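Hi support team,

I've been running sequence recovery on a batch of backbones for a student project. Most finish fine, but this one hangs at about 90% for roughly twenty minutes before it completes. I'm not sure whether the input is malformed or the queue is just slow. I've pasted the structure tokens below so you can try to reproduce it. Let me know if you need the job ID as well.

Thanks,
M.K.
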């Protein structure tokens, strides 16, 4: 009895008028680019009896592992559910190509100091050094349908982190809206928290840039009407759990934005809402958006690509990623056709006009590489030697909790289809040469690779 009383007294303390039971550490740490010479550090805490347990989020950072020249910065907090509070701190005026060490400082109400993590800032825009990008889509958590496919891909992402400058997740991140499908039968918030905890080793130490997919729109994939908590609708979880450079690139939050990294200008678009006949827009099954009307995103994309195309001498490569593919082969049932006609109508003319180098999508649960194609999807060449127009890559094979796709009808422009869980890697070697590959996360072997030449 005395021992029990001792434990209770030790574990419960009165702090600023509220009880603290077992202080916890910050979790789900992640780093993202925030425009030139800036980085956002983000994390989650679980709150203290429904109240914000970190009213003044602070990060300490330094170029020294011992923090001899440390700088402390305050940030902001937001939430959409009383069980989670999301904190963001902007680190500004950083030096290019420099490794920084950081830690999240303790809060007075029940939150411990974090461990030490690190990131390396982007090189100067136009720096001729090679850039290595790891691309993943449709990842989610393990269940009975993917038989551990998600965790194998997560392990693979950790293994290639040291060889990766930044990661891009092309939508369908946690599949929290599929909760109850297979195991472990987690609820919506549990599924999000589980996924972000599993990914922390990657996201805390490498820039992890994200784009929206259909599984980020609402809390029930079978229909927004089944999402009974209004706090979980209209991309709410996605918009709170990540902080992408939408403001800094004149885009819109985490939904569409762009950034430069050395040789590449990278653009994220939203293929779910905010354009005519968008598949997840107002009045559709998922009922998302619109945030900037039917033309706001398209007007932004045109201006962004026009500026990037005019800057090719300094930043030669332009890559666009959106969740849904415009062209691709037909999968067998129960997988549904993945090509988005309204997306193609809205976005592809701009990609063609400004000679975008790659369009990387997901959504279909395989990897497919297309030959260079014209605006109608017909192959114009069977090689990648300085061909015009975007090269289309479908990369939705991360973990696919709804199951892998297998091919029913390949299109004539299909160069390679891989029905295995894994991720793609894109190496921009210099201003004219790139190498694309796909890694099977079960064997960690490359099962597709190709060299691409562009005379920018």
């Amino acid at each position: 009895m005395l021992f029990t009383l001792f434990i209770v007294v030790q574990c419960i303390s009165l702090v600023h008028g509220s009880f603290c039971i077992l202080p916890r550490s910050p979790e789900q740490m992640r780093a993202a680019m925030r425009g030139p010479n800036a980085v956002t550090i983000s994390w989650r805490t679980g709150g203290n009896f429904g109240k914000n347990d970190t009213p003044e989020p602070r990060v300490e950072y330094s170029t020294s592992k011992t923090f001899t020249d440390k700088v402390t910065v305050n940030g902001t907090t937001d939430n959409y559910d009383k069980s989670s509070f999301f904190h963001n701190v902007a680190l500004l005026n950083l030096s290019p190509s420099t490794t920084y060490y950081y830690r999240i400082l303790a809060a007075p109400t029940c939150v411990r100091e974090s461990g030490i993590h690190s990131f390396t800032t982007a090189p100067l825009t136009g720096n001729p050094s090679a850039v290595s990008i790891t691309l993943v889509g449709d990842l989610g958590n393990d269940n009975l349908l993917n038989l551990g496919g998600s965790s194998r891909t997560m392990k693979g992402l950790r293994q290639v982190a040291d060889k990766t400058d930044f990661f891009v997740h092309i939508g369908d991140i946690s599949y929290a809206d599929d909760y109850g499908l297979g195991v472990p039968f987690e609820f919506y918030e549990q599924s999000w928290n589980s996924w972000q905890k599993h990914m922390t080793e990657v996201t805390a130490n490498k820039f992890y840039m994200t784009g929206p997919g259909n599984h980020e729109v609402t809390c029930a994939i079978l229909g927004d009407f089944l999402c009974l908590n209004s706090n979980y609708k209209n991309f709410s979880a996605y918009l709170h759990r990540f902080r992408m450079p939408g403001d800094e690139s004149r885009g819109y939050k985490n939904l569409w934005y762009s950034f430069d990294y050395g040789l590449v200008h990278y653009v994220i678009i939203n293929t779910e809402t905010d354009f005519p006949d968008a598949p997840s827009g107002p009045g559709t099954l998922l009922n998302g958006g619109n945030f900037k009307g039917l033309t706001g995103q398209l007007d932004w994309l045109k201006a962004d690509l026009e500026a990037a195309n005019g800057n090719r001498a300094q930043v030669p490569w332009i890559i666009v990623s959106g969740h849904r593919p415009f062209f691709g082969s037909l999968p067998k049932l129960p997988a549904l056709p993945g090509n988005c006609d309204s997306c193609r109508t809205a976005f592809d003319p701009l990609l063609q006009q400004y000679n975008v180098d790659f369009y990387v999508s997901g959504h279909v649960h395989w990897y497919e590489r297309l030959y260079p194609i014209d605006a109608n999807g017909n192959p114009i060449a069977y090689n990648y030697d300085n061909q015009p127009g975007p090269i289309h890559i479908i990369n939705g094979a991360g973990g696919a909790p709804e199951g892998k796709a297998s091919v029913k009808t390949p299109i004539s422009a299909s160069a390679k289809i891989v029905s295995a869980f894994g991720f793609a890697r894109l190496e921009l070697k210099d201003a004219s040469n790139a190498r694309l590959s796909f890694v099977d996360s079960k064997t960690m072997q490359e099962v597709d690779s190709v060299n691409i030449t562009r005379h920018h």
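--
Follow-up from support: It reproduced on our side and the slowdown came from queue contention, not your input. The two ends are 77 Å apart (CA to CA). No action needed from you.
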